[in-house]
Amino acid sequence: MTAVLAAATLLLTAGCSSGEGQGVGGSGGTDTASPRRTSPQSSPPSQATEEAPPAKGSVKVVRTVAEGLKSPWGLAPLPDGDLLVSSRDDGTITRVDTETGGKTVLGEVPGVSPAGEGGLMGLALSPSFASDHMVYAYFTTESDNRIARMLYEEEKPAGEQLGAPDTVFRGIPKGYVHNGGRIAFGPDKMLYAGTGESGETGLSQDRSSLGGKILRMTPEGEPAPGNPFPDSAVYSYGHRNVQGLAWDTKQRLFAAEFGQDTWDELNRIEPGDNYGWPEAEGDSDDAAFHNPVAQWGTDEASPSGIAHAEGSIWMAGLRGQRLWRVPLKGTEAAADPQAFLEGEYGRLRTVVSAGGDKLWLVTSETDGRGSPEGGDDRILELQVT
């Protein structure tokens, strides 16, 4: 553990993207090159027949849904249109009324140990939420990162609406940095989780480790049927710190990944593929590594959440303090990425599809690396145009 903390501290002080990026004026990547499209090594034959969205589009803020949130991280839309949001540092889950902005604390998740980039992070609703009312959460404990599910009992008093955690998956390496944290149920109703290498870069290429991976499991936490490696939840490897997961309308998985000093990445995820870290950061000439769909200098992105809407991937940038649009044609970028809201709302943590041309966007100014102002942090409703 001492070695992990020492390595993490070194990464923070060495000026890397450090998993979640620095605020404007902070240390970080030195490459300020413009974002670049790259091409994955292989694409399905069907992509040639798919229509690409326009090369240029736009997005506008429709309204502020809620404000005054502390260290918000994960966001899960409820069937009735309200939202559940996690507080990384407080370890609580709050329900937000999307009509009034009113906030109701469901309760505190026991066992959460917030420090550095760890704490209560990703949220996801069970695929059977209408009948089982289960909320899944990814969080850091004193010993590891893990995933637990809790019964949401709405009829109980505020603050007492979360049942005892049922841990479905444990043993994901933790560190002061690079804890991953995003979870999402895919179109196949399997649970996916993005993990980090906890500051120990060698874990990413070690397929026996859960660090620096995308994991795929059943709702009960067992390795999902059809995974690429026998009896393993590992779905892809060679990652540094994955915090964005989203599927397009063809059920293809994309993931956002923090770089260190040079390139942040948007990747198209194929089962069993190696995404290069720490041997490669960004585009590589080595055919053993799956190249990104697009890449950015770390001061322009430090990406956390992503969402798919209107034919594009939308990517929230922390250090970059902007929302990126990557139009897709098949599994490739159809045009150069576009940036929106640059510097207008500070650090951007999470973006989630609200259906059709709408997005939910969560800011991240109160996480210890931002410059919070009155009203921070916020949930915004956006419209893609």
Automatic annotation (TrEMBL):
Protein name (database record): Oxidoreductase
Organism: Streptomyces lacrimifluminis
Region (Disordered): 16-58, 363-385
Basic and acidic residues composition-biased segments: 366-385
Lineage, opening ranks: Bacteria, Bacillati, Actinomycetota, Actinomycetes, Kitasatosporales
Domain (Glucose/Sorbosone dehydrogenase): residue spans on this chain: 69-369
Database matches in Pfam families: GSDH (PF07995)
Skewed-composition ranges (Low complexity): 32-48
Extent of Gly residues compositional bias: 18-29
